[in-house]
Amino acid sequence: MNERTVSQNPVIPESTTVGIVGGGPAGLLLARLLHQAGVECVVLESRERAYVEQRQRAGVLEQSTVDVLRASGAGERLEREGIVHDGIELSWDRRRHRIDFPGLTGGKQVWIYAQTEVVKDLIELQLADGAPLLFEAQVTEVTGADTDRPVVHYTHAGAERTLRCDYVVGCDGFHGVVRDAIPDGELTTYERVYPYSWFGILADVPPSNDELVYAHSPRGFALLSMRSHTVSRLYLQVPNGTDPQAWSDEEIWDELDARFAVDGDWKLARGPITQRAVLPLRSSVTEPLRWGRIFLAGDAGHIVPPTGAKGLNLAAADVTVLARAFGQLHRTGSSDGLDAYSRQCLSRVWRAEQFSYFMTTTLHVAPDQNPFDTRLQISQLDRIAASPHAAAELALNYVGTAL
Ligand code: RFL
Ligand code: PHB
């Protein structure tokens, strides 16, 4: 631990109303919204600040996510630097088809603003004026889930500490520990693991297209995305277990070229690759998202493959609903909102699961895929190009619904 970290550590109380485990987007946004509602909370995050701020992940924000970030006070830089997109392009059979969001959805759009930036903005706000946020605080377990005062156990700076809470919210991602506090048999997890991964790169080169391009190709899926007007984010479908270091930069660009190939003279611009990582794809939903005084939010409760760009947006939706419910309890004493939390969120979650599954299985090539499967995929893509109804279904799912 360095001097800077020590000086930034707030005094952490031994008890609070809402103990939030995990300082990713879900935990940070929840803390911000609770603070605004006058509900006391504490955030415990296992990693150091720099790690959390640099973790390369999502890039697409639904309008409803932007709206809640604005309302939380974290909208200023997003307004300035976020890029509004009016559509995406689908690519297959060496051609492209544009999905026009405003035209198909009654005026809706999405925003391109990196998760890293959302997290930086929320951390800055919270450290300046917010609930206590402790980095390098590893939660080891939550006990007393069946009592009215659950306890969060964590280690920080070599010491074991506890935080007694009225409620605990697990915002600790897919590998979190809060879920384990709930007795065996009380939760059900529905899951699908995909037989391929994404190889993601960040490159110092202006994006080669103004909008995202989702490409189906016989060689596998590819995605062209961006972080800014000067930084591209690209993904390739690869076999599970692929070593990202095993590919040279040239091999990566050649493969991207092959998968984005279209008739005509469009070309993918190349530039220095500054980051690379391989991530497996998974769909998973845990039900219910609440047991007694323990709540699950964001990736701690559900995972989607990134093809639908939904994970961060679902996390924001969960904590918006949860913060409203805690606000209601605080103001009126009514627990109706908390009681409705799981049901309300799961309906949005399952819609996003279906859409993410649809996007993933329509655009990727499974290792055991036969020509029949491929013809079905092409037929589906042709249908989207030919039918405004099919295109609108995709567009409405992509832009999301109001909260
Ligand atoms: P996170 O971000 O995983 O944060 C969980 C936090 O909990 C901490 N933690 C603990 N802290 C204390 N004690 C413990 N025992 C702890 N265990 C864990 C972790 O250090 C971490 O800081 O979950 P959260 O907050 O729910 O946020 C979810 C999003 O991060 C995730 O859904 C998205 O990134 C998914 N996703 C995308 N979502 C979108 O909406 N649009 C996109 O375009 C999009 N693209 C993506 C994505 C995810 C990707 N990856 C890497 C999975 C692209 C990629 C490549
Ligand atoms: C990204 O920019 O990282 C991104 C964009 C769209 C997706 C997934 C990831 O569907």
TrEMBL record:
GO terms for molecular function: FAD binding; oxidoreductase activity, acting on paired donors, with incorporation or reduction of molecular oxygen, NAD(P)H as one donor, and incorporation of one atom of oxygen. Residues 16-356 form the FAD-binding domain. The keyword Flavoprotein applies. It comes from the Bacteria. Keywords: FAD, Flavoprotein. Pfam families: FAD_binding_3 (PF01494). SUPFAM superfamilies: FAD-linked reductases, C-terminal domain, FAD/NAD(P)-binding domain. PANTHER family: P-HYDROXYBENZOATE HYDROXYLASE (PTHR43004:SF3), TRK SYSTEM POTASSIUM UPTAKE PROTEIN (PTHR43004). This is 4-hydroxybenzoate 3-monooxygenase. It comes from Actinospica durhamensis.
